[in-house]
Amino acid sequence: MINNKRKNKYISLEVLILLLLLVFYLTLPSLLRQSWFSVVVWIREAIHSGDGAKLFLASVSLNFTYALLSFTAYFIGLLLIKFFFSNQKESMQRFMIIITYLMIRLISWSFKFPIEPMLDIITICIVIVLTRYARMSLKNINAEVIITLQIFIALQWMNTMPTMTSFYVGHTELPASIKIAGAYLDNAVIQNMISLAFMVPLLLSATMTSMRLRANNTMMTILEENVQKAKELKDAQTKIMENRVYKEVNAMAHDLKTPLVTIRGLNSMLMLSKDMSKLVPYTERIENAVEKMSELISGFLYGTHRQRLTLGELINYVRAQVPIDSDSISFDFTTEKEDVLICGNKIRLSRAIINIIENAIIATANRESRMVSLKCTSSQNEVLICIKDNGNGIETEHISQLFEIGFSGVGSTGLGLPFAKQIIEEHQGTITIDSELDHGTSVIINLPICTE
Amino acid sequence: MINLQFFKKVLAFMLGIVIVSSIILILNNKQNTIQNQLTYLSQPIASEKVLITSAGQSTDTYIIKDVANDLLLENIFIPNAESSDLDGVKSVVIVVAHSYIGEFLHDIDYEDEYMRVQELVEDAQAKELPIIGVYIGGQMRNHKKTKQLIDLVFSSSSYNFFVGEDHNLATQLSLETDVPMIYVDSMQQIKGPFSSLFR
User: Fold this and answer.
1) Do A375 and A388 contact (CB within 8 A), yes or no?
2) Within a domain: residue A255?
3) In whole angstroms, what is the distance from residue B132 CA to residue B198 CA?
4) Which residues on B lie below 8 Å from A173 (Cβ)?
5) Would you say the pTM of this structure is higher than 0.90?
6) Which of A180, A198, A232 is where one domain is finished?
7) Which domain holds residue A335?
8) Topology classification of domain B50-196
C-alpha cells in the first residue's frame, strides 16, 4: 500500500517534469524570438556594411537557438521513455525515443516551428551510431545528455553551410537569409569553413566522449561480472562449509554412539549380573564412557575446550575419518611414540589435520602412483606431525599465499589451510609448508607436549 | 593495443570527413564553373526614382536596396510601402520572399501582407508605373506562401528578375506568365543586369 502510494507520487512527479518541459518547448519560439530578431538585424547590418563578421554573429546565435529547440525535443523523448517505458528492451527504448522525437518535431512543425527535416534525420542517425557505440543505457542519462548535446550543437552548423543547401539542409527562413546574404557578400567559402571549424571539433568531442564511455561501460560490465562471480564463489564456499559441518556432526554422532553402546551394554550386564563385586568396575566404565561423551561434545561445542589426549588417540581419530575413496592411494600413518600427551581440542585438531590430508590427496590426483604419508615424531618439548605427498608441488611464490582465505593451488575452496593454521596457532603450535615442484609437498605441524 | 585501435578509429573518422568535404567542395566548384550567359537589356524599361519594397518582409529586400545604392540609383526604401508611397516615384521594385520573423518585426500577418502587396501592385498598374518583380531566394525560399506572393507579383509586373540556381522554378515561372524575365545564376552577377533595367 505504502509502495503504491510512493510509486504514484513518483509518477505524478515524472508527469509534472514532462509537462513542464513540454510547456518550455512550446514557449521556446516565443522566448527565442528576440534572439531571432537580432539575427535579422545582424543580417541587415551585414548587407548594409558588407561586414561578414555580422553574419558570423547571426550564425552563432541562430545555431545555438536551433540546437536548443531540437535538443529539448529529444530530451522530452528521452525522459518520456525513461520514466514510462523503462521495462522495455534497450533497442526498443532507442527506437521509441527516435519516434517520439520525430513526432514532437512533426507536431511542432504544424505550429510553425523552424524545422529542418533532413538535418533532424542526419542528427538522429549520428545519435544512434554514437549511443550504440558507447553502449549507453538510459540509466546513465547524464552521459547521454553530454553526448547528444554536443551532436545537436555540432550539426546545427550545417544550417549555415552554403554547401549543404543542395542537400536540403538550412532551408528554413533564417539560415536561408544568412546564406543568401553570405552569397551576396561573396562570403560562402568563409561560411563553409567557419561552420566546419565549429562542427568538426564538436563532433570529434562527441565521438571521443562516446569512446570513453564505451571503455567505461565495458569496465563496469567486467566489474559487475566479477562481483557476481565473487558472490557465487562465496555462496559455493558457504555451501561447502555447511556440508563440512554436516559431515562433522555426522562423525560426532557416530563417535557419540560408541560410548552409548558401551553404557547400554554395561547397564544390561549390570541388570543381569548377580555378582555385586562387578558393580564398581562396571559403573567406573560407565562413568568413563560418559566422560568421553562429555569431552567429545565440549570439544565440538567450545573451540577453547582442551583435553589431555595421547598422540596415538589423535592420530587414530584422524585415521578413522580420512576420506579414502580410491584404492590407488597409498596411505602410510607412522607414529613413533603414541603415548606422548598433548593438550588440545581433539575435534578441532583432527579437523585441521584432516584438511591437510585432504589437500594432499587432491594434490596427487594426476600421479600414477599416489602416496600420502603421515609421520609423527616427538622431541622433549614438542610433537612433530609431517604430512607428505608426492603430488605436483607448489611454486615457491605461491607458498606464502597458501594460508590466505580463498587461495588454492589445487582447485579447492581455499578455506582448509587457513582454518588449519588458525587451529594450530590456537594450540600454541606452528605450521610450515615445504614444497618442491614436480616432487611433492610436506606440511609440518609442531605442537607442544603437555607437561601438566 | 587499445590506444592504437582508438587512434586508428579517430584517424579513419577524420579521413572520412576530409574525403566527404573534398567531394562536396569539388562538386561545388564544378557548379561554379558553369558559364553564365548574362542578360542585358538593349534599352531600359524603368526609370528613377525607384521605390524598393518587399513582398513577404524577408531580408532579401535589403540586398536589392544595397545593390541600388551601389549603382547610385535614386531610390526610396520602404519595406512595407503602401499606395500613398507611390507618389513621386517612376518605378517599383518588389522583392519577393516570405518571412515569419519579418512579419513579426513589422507586426503584421500574412493576410495583411498579401493584401498590401496586392493593393500596391494594383495602384502601381493604375498609375502605369513599371513594376519589377525580384526573387533571389533560389530553392531555399521556395515555400507555399512565397510561391503565392511570387504568383501575385510576377504575373502583374513589367519585368521579372530571378536570381538563384533553382532552374526548375525559374523555368516554371517563365512559363506561367508572359512577363519577360532576367535569370541570373549567382548573387555576384546581379548588378549588371539590374542596372540595365534602368540605364
Assistant:
1) yes
2) no
3) 11
4) 58, 99-101, 141
5) no
6) A232
7) 305-448
8) Rossmann fold (3.40.50)
